[in-house]
Every structure is written in structure tokens, then in C-alpha cells.
Design a protein that fits this description.
With about 280 residues, the protein is an alpha+beta fold. It has seven helices and ten strands. A six-stranded antiparallel β-sheet has the order 1-2-8-5-6-7, covered by helices on one side.
Length: about 280
């Protein structure tokens, strides 16, 4: 089937048509044994319609071998080629309005910032790279693209993190640090324990949050507002760490940016942190 017929088959969404053209221009039509687009059917093993039924998905098939009673499996060269196609799509998720990529028992989803996950669906997708696209009207605002959705997800995470450190420092510091046996504000000899408590605060940040912040920071889709939010979070941790280490109270204001989904814009907010040394 030639490119013209592919684009005319069924009803393809603009995003699917654009991706089809871009991928074929990049790799050539002859590189793919077949390409699946519009197909009115349900998801394999499910009851809901597949994105193919909306013309909103593409299957880029790679050279494969048939295994009786099982799904086709890519040849070694086919798997290598599939990896190249998958990598190209991952590099262009924003430009191509991609929501989901599935390839060789792995899935990359916009909801996870396209982090690689194990895919346990009925079809292992070992013979083709599957792509779903954002559909106009699928999300609460029809003009939203996946860059906006990724930024909103990132901002939600950053707001929870800022709020969490606010709770630690202002609402119930003693309750939070009660879990750290090396730091008990009611015990004698407290001066021997501040360093341990401060280091545990920093270790928790380094273990659970710093890698995620680096991931967001390195993404080409991250907004300048969230880059500033990341800097504010680091400043909060530094101030709390030093206050605990020095055994002193601290009050400071933090200005950050919260994403407003109703206007697709960021609004500045200010919060006063009060670390009360006990």
C-alpha cells in the first residue's frame, strides 16, 4: 500500500497523518513491511474501542518471523530497526502529539513523562511499534497539547513537594522528626543530635526527590516557571537543613508558580515557612 492510500484509508486524525508522514520521510516507506492505521475494532483482550477505531493510532511493523500459536517476533535486524523507530518517536513526542508508545513488551506513556515501563497487555507488540496520539476533545481543553499536559503533571508534583516541606517545617515539625530516633527534641543532650536529623532530611531529598527533579529539569518541555520552582525547592531544603543543623528557628517566604488549568498559565503564589526549633 502506498503512502497516498494509507493517508486516505478510513479516517485518520491530523496527528496520526502528520506522524505517518514524518516517520516515512525519516525511514522510507519500504523499510516497513506494513503500516496499520484505521481499523474499527476493540482493544485486544478488552471491551473498549482501540485508538485505531478513531484513526488515532499507528502500527509501524518491522521485519518479523511467524511463530505457530504465538504472536510474531521481530528478527534481530527487525528489533534493531524497531528500537530506532521507537527512539525517534520518543525524541519527538511533543512535536508529534504522542500520548503512548508500545514496543517489545515495554510502554512509554505521557502520564509517566514517557518513562519506560513493562507492558503486560495481551499483545506483546514484538513485531510492531504502536503509537497513540492525543485527540482533540479528549482532555478538558481541546487546545491542549502534550507539552501542556506534561507541564501540568510536573507542576502538580512540584506543588506537592513544596506543600510537603511546608507541612514539615510549619505545621508539625516534631511529628515529622519523631520517626528519626537520632533526633528527639525532648531528650537531654539534644546538641548531639541535630547533625543526624539534618543529614536524614537531606538523604531523604537526595534519595526520593532529587532524581525526579533532575529528570524534569533536563526535559526540553519543562517551563521556565517550573525550573524556578525546582530552584525554590532546593532553597527550601538548604534553609531547613541549615536551621536544623544550627539548632535555630527560621522564618522565610517562598514565591513559586502554580499551573492554572483553566487558563493554561502559571500564577505566582507566596507561602511563609516557619521552622520553630523545639
Amino acid at each position: 500500500m502506498n503512502l497516498k492510500n494509507l493517508l486516505l484509508e478510513g479516517t485518520m486524525t491530523p496527528a496520526a497523518k502528520k506522524c505517518l508522514n514524518v516517520v516515512i520521510n525519516r525511514f522510507g516507506r519500504s523499510a516497513f513491511p506494513s503500516i496499520g492505521t484505521y481499523n474499527y475494532r476493540k482493544k485486544r483482550g478488552g471491551t473498549s474501542l482501540s485508538e485505531h477505531a478513531y484513526g488515532n493510532a499507528i502500527d509501524f511493523h518491522v521485519p518479523s518471523i511467524k511463530i505457530p500459536g504465538e504472536y510474531d517476533v521481530a528478527t534481530p535486524k527487525g528489533k534493531e530497526f524497531g528500537n530506532q523507530v521507537k527512539d525517534f518517536l520518543l525524541q519527538n513526542t511533543v512535536e508529534l502529539d504522542i500520548e503512548i508508545i508500545i514496543w517489545y513488551k515495554q510502554i512509554w506513556n505521557i502520564s509517566d513523562n514517557f518513562t519506560k515501563r513493562y507492558y503486560d497487555g495481551e499483545h506483546p507488540h514484538t513485531d510492531h511499534v504502536h503509537v497513540d496520539f492525543l485527540r482533540e476533545g479528549r482532555h478538558e481543553n481541546g487546545n491542549r497539547n502534550n507539552k501542556t499536559i506534561i507541564n501540568q503533571k510536573n507542576n502538580t508534583f512540584l506543588m506537592k513537594l513544596i506543600g510537603g516541606y511546608y507541612d514539615i517545617s510549619t505545621k508539625n515539625p516534631a511529628g515529622y522528626f519523631k520517626q528519626f530516633r537520632s533526633w528527639n527534641p525532648l531528650s537531654p543532650g539534644i546538641g548531639d543530635n541535630e547533625e543526624g536529623a539534618a543529614n536524614k532530611l537531606l538523604k531523604r531529598f537526595d534519595t526520593y526527590y532529587r532524581p525526579k527533579l533532575k529528570e524534569i529539569e533536563s526535559s526540553k518541555t519543562t517551563s521556565k516557571e517550573d525550573l524556578q520552582n525546582i530552584q525554590r525547592i532546593r532553597e527550601i531544603v538548604d534553609i531547613l537543613y541549615q536551621a536544623i543543623l544550627d539548632g535555630r528557628s527560621e522564618t522565610f517566604d517562598v514565591t513559586y508558580f502554580k499551573f492554572d488549568s483553566s487558563t493554561n498559565s502559571y500564577k505566582p503564589k507566596t507561602m511563609t515557612f516557619k521552622w520553630n526549633y523545639l
